[in-house]
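B., you asked whether I could sanity-check this one before it goes into the benchmark set. Here's the sequence:
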Amino acid sequence: PVDLAVALESRGFGSLFVTEHSHIPGDTKTPYPMGGPIPPQYYRTLDPFVSLTAAAVATESLLLGTGISLVTQRDPILTAKEVASLDLVSQGRFLFGVGVGWLREEIANHGVDPKVRGRVMDERLRAMVEIWTKDEPEFHGDYVDFDPIYSWPKPLAKPHTPVYVGGGPANFPRIADLGAGWLSLSPSADALAPDLAKLRDLAGPDVPVIASHVGKVTAEILGGYRDLGVDHVTVELPTQPRDETLRRLDSLHKAYAELG
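And here's what the prediction gave me:
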């Protein structure tokens, strides 16, 4: 993560987002969304908070994000502490991308019923907001329950670390209720436009959006997102050895540079 973060910042990229899977169950019934077997990199990921802390101390301006953190598989009190600590270490450069997760067996191994994972995430996020924003937070829900506690540090970012919810339109009410942003997944600006319009109608025209583009990257494709008013676009970086990765960054940088 240090080499990658330094390489990104030196080339003028704006952010580094890392994924999360605590593990991949050996016998899964949940279909892999992209089809076929689950790729090995899904169970070889580093812990995102460790990775991004390393990246934070090696950079000065690079934004650092989770894309996504599986909140349904995380203790909310501990995760609130990790988020606030990384926010502090990075001097307010952390973006907390979250999601409910798709791998039902992985979720179940953490003691969560996959059928209610959306409700579990909602409560855990609301509980974390309480911890970040209050001196003596408490929370009482169906899936999270604690009496008043003390927990510091508080995030440098105000009112708290920016939260971005990943997923499709089913998450739009959640985004509006939380005052969060949207971490989208789209093959093109044209494909994103209808859902983006729905979100803006519900959450307001200024709702923060990070477009996670999948597929070929060209200046024309990137320009389409800018025309939609999306000013933060991430692109996939394949899992490759160091030298191949750096060459890939140079290729991506060329596309961004052509955008102007």
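One thing to flag: The radius of gyration is 18 Å. Otherwise nothing jumped out at me.
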